[in-house]
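Supplementary notes for students who missed Thursday's class. We covered one full example, reproduced here. Read the sequence, then the structure, then the short commentary at the end.
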Amino acid sequence: MRNFLLITALVVLSFHAHARVAKVLGTIISKGQSNDVMFEIKLAASMPGEPNFEQLQHKIKYYDESGKKQTLGPEDADEIRFRYGGEEIRMISCANTPDTEAFFSSSTRIFLKLQIDGPLRLYQFYAKQGTAPNYPGGTGMTYMAYSFIFQKGNGPLKQPVNLGFKKDMLEYFSDCPALRERIESKDLWKEDMEAMTTYYNQKCIAK
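Structure (token representation):
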């Protein structure tokens, strides 16, 4: 009976270890060239079934034509693409800029998940967050969260600030009076960054 329980436990552990990795077909884009590969994607422990985007920002495993496993970083490609859960995922290699130094640590580039494409791009940056412990000496909860980052064309990345958000956005969108007016009147606010991006791309760019 004891041996049976031990074997069962090992099978369960093996299943969970396997379930944390997904192999999906995808594409590496570098210097205008596309290369179709098989990616090995780690899944997030805190969000079952979802890719671990925090890790994907820094590296991704794939199998080359000979079947050998390789590691790809944001310094090695312009973009990676794959479909997961019915969604096309695009991770764009972005350069470190003064506004986002805290994200990159010692890295010079990072893969950011593209949320909206266009003259103004909107990215999602993923990082672990923690809650305060419920009692002295206790431990808080750790969870994954994302924040939005803007990029105009090939310009520097821009992370909106929390304190002084309106002033920050009025300065950033100084090239679009109509959008500034909507932000000034609080018609668009912190939770409306996707709407800001769509509006900018549709109304603020000369056709």
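Commentary. The first helix runs from residue 2 to 19. The chain has a mean pLDDT of 83. If anything here is unclear, bring it to office hours.
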